[in-house]
Amino acid sequence: NNNNNVRKRKSRVSSSQRRMVNPLSIKQQYTVPLPNWKDIFEDLSKTFYIDIGCARGTMLIEMAKKEQIKDNKDNQEKQHNFIGIEIRDELVKEANELVEKMKLKNIYFICCNVNVCLESIFISLSKDLGFSGVSHLSIQFPDPWSRQKHKKRQIIQSELVDIVDKYLLIEGQVYISSDVPEIVQISKTFFLNEKNNFRLFTNEDNLNNKFWWTSGVNDNDVDFPGNLMENPLTVPSEREHVCAKFWRKVLIFLL
User: Fold this and answer.
1) pLDDT tens-digit profile of 149-194?
2) DSSP label of 209
3) Residues near 129 by Cβ (< 8 Å), separated by ≥ 6?
4) pLDDT confidence of 230, banded at 50, 70, 90?
5) Diameter over CA atoms, the chain
6) Contact 196, 160 (CB under 8 A)
7) Residue 12 in this model has a pLDDT that exceeds 70
8) Can you tell me the distance from the alpha carbon of 125 to that of 147, in angstroms, rounded to the nearest whole number?
9) Cα(188)–Cα(198) distance, integer angstroms
10) Separation of alpha carbons 85 and 180, rounded Å
């Protein structure tokens, strides 16, 4: 059979690109109905932590589990409700099933395109509606979409940054991490735009009373000034475990 002698044409699409979902596709341009938060969260006096691109939500679930244990011990530290946002519906379904199984009352996962739905989520959690608002937001290892023609598919765009700047609580914080240097530089460019109210965390900042903890900024990192020396979160993400295994440098900054 002559077909056996025909060499298969190598695909120009990488395996990582096949796993990524195009946020600009038509089906990703619709908002999704949000649940009644009063039916989801046990204590609505807590501020909200939003994790964008949470994948299976393992990190967020572990953080929520730790805080619920503290709640059960009448801990006086300020606690949070957690919301994970992920564009892949099968991962969201899996995460919410695990939350239900673990009987966690301080976490929920939403399947949506964050560039379409983030503002409606912020508004639904606002103080104007009787909630405590969003105090923390993290974007960890966003899909790089490295080809020039795919740049508009990246999560961090000026429109998203404007929404975060508008609705995040004044004392709120933004945490961003990636093992792709270009993504970190692009993110800084958007967030540190002079029209926004964000500024980079420095060693002079006192975070003793904040949700975040960190050992400080690596002042010797000439290429990436403001890069944190270690992850200030209590739990590493799935991707961070992979990077540690393969000795990939993770770039982290706090705003």
Assistant:
1) 545 657 788 899 999 999 999 889 999 998 888 888 888 888 998 8
2) T
3) 123
4) confident
5) 74
6) no
7) no
8) 35
9) 10
10) 21
Q: Which amino acid is at 63?
A: M
What is the distance between the alpha carbons of residues 23 and 154, in angstroms, rounded to a whole number? Answer: 8
Is pTM, for the whole model, over 0.85?
no
User: How do residues 187-201 score in pLDDT, each as one tens digit?
Assistant: 888 899 888 889 888
- CB-neighbour burial class of residue 150 (10 A; exposed 0-12, middle 13-18, buried 19+): middle
Instruction: Kindly tell me if the per-residue pLDDT of 137 is higher than 90.
Output: yes
Q: Could you give the CA distance from residue 220 to residue 214 in angstroms, rounded to a whole number?
A: 16
The catalytic site residues sit at 143
Q: CA 50, 55, 59, 60 torsion: positive or negative?
A: positive
DSSP annotation of 2 reads G
Residues in CB range of 59: below 8 A, 6 or more apart? 51, 140, 233, 235, 236, 237, 238
DSSP symbols for 25-65: SGGGSS--PPP-HHHH-S-TTSEEEEEES-TT-HHHHHHHH
**Mean of the pLDDT values across residues 74-96?**
86
